[in-house]
Amino acid sequence: MACYFGWMALLTVVYYLNPTERIVWWTGIGLSGVAAIIVGARINHPAHALPWYLLAVANLSFTAGEVVQVIQTDYLHQVDFPSIADGFYLAEYLLYAAGVLGFIRWRTAHQDRGSVIDALTITVGLALLVWIYLILPYAVSPELTWVQKAISMAYPLGDVLVLAMLLRLLVPRGGKSTSLQLLAVGTVGILVSDVLYGLIQLHGVWHIGTPVDLGWAAFYCAWGAAALHPSMVELTRPIPVQPPHITRGRIALLALASLIAPGVLLVEVNLGDSSHAGVIGAFSAVLFLLVLARLSGVVMIHRHAVARERALRVAGAELTSVVTVEEVAAAVRAAVSTLMPNAPRHVALLALGEDEFVPPLPATREPRLVPAGELGGDLATLLDGSPSALLCPLALKERPSGNSLVGMLVVGGTALELTALQSSLEILAAQSALAVERVMLSQEINVRNSEAYFRTLVQSASDVILILNEDDSVRYASSSAERVLGEPELGGTQLIDLVPPEDSHAVVLALAKMRRGDHSEQGVHWRLLRSDRRSIEVEVRCNDLRDDPTVGGLVLTLRDVTDQRQMERELTHRAFHDSLTGLANRVLFQDRVGHALSRSERQGTVTGVLFIDVDDFKVVNDTQGHGVGDELLVAVSLRVSTALRTSDTAARLGGDEFAVLVEDARSPADVGGIADSVLAAFAEPFKLSAGAVRVSASVGVATTEDSADSAELLSHADLALYSAKASGKRQWCQYQPALQASLLERHELNESLDSAISESAFSLCYQPIVDLAGGGLVAFEALVRWPHARRGMVPPEEFIALAEESGQIVPLGAWVLERAAAEVARWQRTSLAPRADRGRPPLYISVNVSARQLRDAGFVDIVRAVLDSSGIQPGSLILELTESVLMRRDDRVRADMATLSDLGVRLAIDDFGTGYSSLSYLREFPISILKIDKSFIDGLGVSPQQYALVEGISRIADTLGVQVIAEGIETIAQRDLLTAMGCPLGQGYLFAEPLTVDQAGTLVRDDAALGSLDLHPQGRRQV
Q: How far does CA 581 lie from the centroid of its chain?
């Protein structure tokens, strides 16, 4: 550096001594500065050398301009303006601006908006002076062309650009370096010389060799020295962002710059010149806007500072409550994410103790910013591609261990982001150091207390802990051994003495395996003997700690699982047995059937399955209650079990269904004999708490003679049971292949039923109900028929039962109601007047309603809708119910019946006398009509008892105000007897078979015309 300054001083002195040889000495000064910049960039290796090379090119351009100018004036005697030299001079300004802009980019953080505004404020203030005293005189000079004016004004504008870039580089506080100061000196030198040169050109004649040239010489010398000085590398390194407050010196400088405009205005006014007032006003407005922008920037900086302070305060609160190092690291990562919300690729690592990837810190323990590539491979990988890393030490001045370094906080990101947050991250590192130290001290205290803790834990544990010597004697037993085994002192006791004799050999082998390390980690189960010789079950776990000097033995942990194993056995029994009867359930029965089939195949014997269903069990449940029903099921299970052999298995499959597995039978006849024994068991009544109950059973039998596997065996038994019930119950039925075809046919019929309902493929027939005394038509009973496309007319008893089972009876019944009501409405319109003339009420329609249909929640709404759509009076509709509906004592059904009665719809009991008939129904339910079953009518004139019974029913019903209809009247004698005993209404083949809609319409017209029905001589209506 000293040699360089001496050389530049020598060239400057020689220049002033021989100004006529300016091209030699001045060029030497310029090229020496260029060379110094290039050499300095080569020697000092800055992180970014391009800005320095741009400065070197700027110096070279300025020197080239000097050389060209000297050649033109001194040698070529050309005084042209502008010239090529002006191009070189002006290029120097642009190159200077580009170089300094590079320094600004790498040196200052992107958040430093205040420094930019401060530099602009000072620049605008000084630019006003340049504009008024240098630029405007050239702009108004009459002696210059427009090109000369533009070039002349470009020089002061270039000086303004240089001034702005210099101020932007100098304004940020902190990080001042010698190289920066030298650059500032050189830039001030060129600015002063340029301004003086411009003033001299405006007001006098320029001469070389004057003191003005010293500014340019200082420019060359200072820039070269700035590059040679080692501090030049700092100009491309980020400097930390300083606190947001403004120093007094900066405030004074900004105030002075802001006062330039009003000061110039005052001077102009005193001189009597106000021509520049507009320019001064414009510059004043710009300065005002810059001041406002600076104030808003101060507010934003304050907000950012408050946000960072809040983030650090939250992080400090979280760090005070953490209990593990992992929680400290998580809190630190959360805090860094809050501090760097706009940096999605940031990484925060907390390295503690002797982590191998922790890079070394300087002895000063100061934070430092390093490129990520300089770190170790592991840490560079963890930084996930971050270009730079800030290393903040977790240091405490006074630590018990003596080492002040607890660890390190490593934050990855860009250099500008990390520099801007360096102070906040240092505070976070200090808080993290305190939290980590507190956690470590807590862990150390816990470790010191662990021995006493575990000693207390072992003594208080419910499990028994034993330490065995090599001879299997007990060296140590925890205090829980007395509670579990009843032995107060087990020291020296042989473990084999605590085991039942029959288990001793297995325990010895297990201990040998444990010592060889060949034992299950899941534990084994032993039986041990208490001091009272009662056996208990324990779960044993082993740890071989013979090599541990603190233990030196085989450690057994014994847990009393007696109650648990008992519970497991009980739960297993419940899983495979029926809780009510104690018999095997469906799961266990199917499993035993599978095993029985395997044995049967090996031994050549016959295996059979019996499916047993208690006949009419639902009636017992409904009439006597579920408690009596359960009692009956238990009694049935006992009867069935006693009727079997010891090798047979009885099971309850659910509800009132039982099953029997018959094994080792010699022939299917033996299985049939078991079925006979089961049926015989139901011969005697069952004596229950509510009295004697007599029930029968139906049995389905299947054997391996006609079944290939267990699934088929069970399916065939179920089919046989269905056949037995369909054949009249109280019997057993052997599976036949024809049953399969019958089931298939039933399935096809069920599928056809679904489509028939949706397509309205049913039809209605109507059987008349007549006045027995006068012979007049009173009503019709609607009867549904199914004309099947392939099977012809399907009997109602077949498809009605299917519809009941599948639930299709609900939509089918709704369709019947709607169609029947529509037809009777039409008939009422045609016969109303003639019937009224004879004093007869309108025709009504009677519709059968099944139990499933009545139990449907929307049945009452369906009836209402039918009445509304048809327009008939509610009294014209009779709903016929079976006795099974009344026996259930269903509260909701009872409420629906009351609702229908309130609407005016009449309710009838159909087929009265065929079931568990009770005249009490007439009192309990809103019944208005009673229909006597055909079986009672058939006995009239044959049995006096039957006559008396029908007559008694009719008289009691009449007394209770209930109308009676006799069903199935086929002879005139039956009609006359019923008329004599006072039965008012009847229906049957005597009057007509079920009629089609058209036939019924004809009958209605005939009755309206004649007032009565015309009977055929043989007793049947001609239609």
A: 45
Q: Which helix (H) or strand (E) holds 678?
A: helix 668-680
SS3 474: strand
Nearest of 885, 869, 757, 770 to residue 823 by alpha carbon:
869
The dihedral over CA atoms of 899, 902, 908, 912, expressed in degrees to the nearest 10, equals 70
Structure tokens given for 82: 């502008």
Higher local confidence (pLDDT), 541 or 107: 541
Q: What is the pLDDT of residue 863?
A: 93
Residue type at 956 in one-letter notation: I
Residue 33, phi then psi, degrees to nearest 5 = -65, -40
Q: Which helix (H) or strand (E) holds 857?
A: none
C-beta separation of 220 from 89 below 8 A? no
* Signed CA dihedral, 435, 441, 442, 443: sign only: positive
Question: Rounded to whole angstroms, how far apart are CA atoms 212 and 206?
Answer: 10
| Contact criterion met (CB below 8 Å) for 881 and 930 | no
Q: What per-residue confidence (pLDDT) applies to 136?
A: 65
Taking residue 93's Cβ as centre, other Cβ atoms within 10 Å add up to: 23
- β-bridge mates for residue 40, sequence order: none
- Give first-to-last CA distance, the chain, whole Å: 141
Question: Positive or negative CA dihedral for 260, 262, 265, 269?
Answer: negative
Q: From CA 762, how far away is CA 5, in angstroms rounded?
A: 122
Q: Is the separation of the CB atoms in 665 and 574 below 8 Å?
A: no
* CA gap 893, 883 in Å, rounded: 13
Beta-bridge partner residues of 792: 788
AA letter at 829: R
CA angle (213, 214, 219) in 5-degree steps: 100
Tens-place pLDDT, residues 939-959: 887 888 888 888 888 888 888
Q: Determine whether 897 is exposed, middle or buried from the number of CB atoms within 10 Å of its CB (0-12, 13-18, 19+).
A: buried
Q: What is the CA radius of gyration of the chain?
A: 58
Q: Which tens digit of pLDDT belongs to each residue from 286-310?
A: 767 767 776 676 677 667 777 778 8
Cα separation, 37 vs 222, whole angstroms: 10
Q: Give yes or no for residue 362 having a pLDDT over 50.
A: no
Please name the residues in contact with 318: beta carbons below 8 A apart, sequence gap of 6 or more: 331, 334, 335
Per-residue pLDDT, 851: 79
Residues 6+ apart with CB under 8 A from 293: 117
pLDDT surpassing 80 at residue 137: no
Q: How far apart are CA 668 and CA 740, in angstroms?
A: 19
**Is the omega angle on the peptide bond into residue 500 within 30 degrees of 0, that is, cis?**
no
Given a contact cutoff of 8 angstroms between Cβ atoms, the answer to whether 782 and 806 are in contact is: no
Distance CA 644, CA 675 (A): 9
Amino acid occupying residue 138: Y
Q: Which two three-digit tokens encode residue 207? A: 């001469």
Compute, in degrees rounded to 10, the torsion defined by CA atoms 484, 490, 493, 497. Answer: -20
DSSP characters for 58-100? HHHHHHHHHHHHHIIIIIS----SS-HHHHHHHHHHHHHHHHH
Closest among 334, 365, 368, 367 to 348, alpha carbons compared: 334
The identity of residue 584, as a single letter, is: A
The model's pTM: 0.40
The pLDDT tens digits of the residues spanning 840-874 come to: 899 999 999 987 888 888 889 999 999 999 999 99
| Single-letter amino acid code for the residue at 998 | D
User: Which residue spans within 459-499 are E strands per DSSP?
Assistant: 464-468, 474-477
Three state DSSP letters for 909-945: EEEECCCCCCCCHHHHCCCCEEEECHHHHCCCCCCHH
Give SS3 for 987: coil
Q: Is residue 466 exposed (0-12), middle (13-18) or buried (19+ Cβ within 10 Å)?
A: buried
> Half-sphere exposure of residue 75, counting CA atoms within 13 Å on the CB side?
9
